[in-house]
Each structure stands twice: as C-alpha cells, then as structure tokens.
Amino acid sequence: MMKCILFILITVSLTFSTVPSCHKKETNNSSSHLSYYFDNREIDYINENNININEIIPYVEFESFNVYNFYEYENLRKEKNYTYIQTLNRINYPNFYKKYVSVKPAIFTNSFLTLVNKGHYVDSSFIPNDIIALKNTNITYIKRENEIMQANKTILENYSLLEQAAKKENFNLYVFSAYRSFDKQRYIYYDINNCNDETVARPGFSEHQLGLSLDISTLEYGLTNYLKDSEEYNWLIKNAHKYGFILRYPQGKEEYTGYAYEPWHFRYVGKDVASFIYENNLTLEEYIYDYLEIK
3-state SS string over 114-182? Predict the structure, then answer.
C-alpha cells in the first residue's frame, strides 16, 4: 500500500509541475521527487548515473525493484519486450525454473497459488489448515486400509461440484490421492521409488503436502498414462478449470514444471486463475513468473 501511495505521489508531483514543458531538462531527479521512495544513497546512485526519474516511475510500485539493477532491468525489458513484472522476476530470480538449485521456501503462501515444486519447499512440520477427511463428503475416492484421505475443505467443495457434473455425463471419477504428509512423502521417495527425482518429489517439495492437489482417475486406468486416451480425461481437461482446477503437469511443459506428464494430477488455484491458465496454455510456474511479482 505504501509503495502505491509513493508511486501516486511521484506521478502527481511530476504531472502538476509548474515548470513549462519546453523548459524541462532531460532528467528531473530533484530530491523532492526521489526522496518519496529512495534513501540518500540510492538518490546519489540515480544522480551519478544520470537515470531519468520518468524511467524509474513504472518500477516504483513493485516491492522487488532494486534501483542498483536499473540498467540491467531496462536492457532486458527493451531487448525482450517484457512487461515490468516479467523483467523484475527474471533478473531477481534467474534460477526460477532450475530444479533443486538455490531452493527457496514456498512462495504465495496462505493462498491457493502457493508454489511448491523442485525449487520451492515447505518445512517438515508444515500441515495445511482446513483439511478435512474425504469420508465426510460425498466424493468418490479410493479407500485404503489404515489411511484417512484428506484435502483442503474449499477444494473438496469445488471438486464435489466437478464430480457431480461428470456423473451427469456418465463419467465415474475417483480421487486416488490427496494430502500427503512430509513423512509419507519421505517414505514414498526413499523407500518406494529409490530417490527417483524424475517421477517423485523429494520430501518437502511435493505440493501434495499443501492439501491443494488431487490425483483423479478412473478404476479402469488408475494412475497411468493410459488415462489420457479416455473420454473421462478429455472431459476433465475441458471442464476442470470451471471448478478452479488445472492439470498441474501437462505434456510438453516439463522444462517449466520439472515433472513428467501426469494426466491424473490436478491442482486447485481458483476459478479465475484456472480459466486464465487453461485459456493461455500455461503452467502454474509460467503464470507466476509472467504475471505475479515475486517478492
């Protein structure tokens, strides 16, 4: 909020300047303008490098803007015709798509856009809020001995509507997996899959731990790639976004997600974002890197 106010103050100050436009200098870097946002050291840097304040203004609203990277930002933005958010994210987070390199804590936490992948993790103690047992819903799921399948309450409410719509088309869907604890993921990664990074997330790096993902399939195909050839899958792909879900690991997007194609793995992100991702053929990673400021 403060940055937005500062951005407005700088803009208004420049717009209503009493200096006639024909007498304005190439740069307008008076401390009265710059001090709204920058400290003395940053102002000195701006003046010493003859940076035009008008070129800085579009960046001011972003918390991640670092004035010392200004020329690097501008060179990339102009070269690639990037938006300001794309520019900031790429300069500030060049390893965003790297797998298990310079890993960072999950971002956009406490929201349905929380990112956990091979570059972002949650702690072993992390347990999501508002998870409930599927047995207390009308959702069809795979029942296993000594297992209580759970997921976020909101996503189950929306998935229930999705499942009802599917049934009207005579499609019978089942949830095979939902929330997964750190300890269970550790068991799957080390004991079941022998540390195979290609197919299984390391403990702490699985978004199943968020409680926002569901593995959805049919009894006939289960969690196999054969699902992609089914009518049920075709219906899911065309309709999941209407209920806030996206196919999390699409085919041909491995360089962004870090995972091989999984036709069964769906993630809840909310209806508006899901529809945007679907309509623009994006992954969650691409959406965040191109449209959200990473702070």
Answer: CECECCEECCCCCCCCCEEEHHHCCCCECCCCCCCCEEEHHHHHHHHHHHHHHHHCCCCCEEEECCCCH
Q: Which pLDDT tens digit goes with each residue over 195-253?
A: 988 889 999 999 999 999 999 999 999 999 999 999 999 999 999 999 999 999 999 99
Amino acid code (one letter) for 140:
T
207 tagged catalytic: no
Q: Which of 163, 207, 262, 285 is catalytic?
A: 262
Same domain, 201 and 67: no
The number of distinct structural domains making up the chain is 2
Same-domain status, 64 and 132: no
141 and 180 together in one domain: yes
Count of positions (residues) in the chain: 295
Domain final residue pick, 39, 64, 92: 92
pLDDT reported for residue 210 = 98
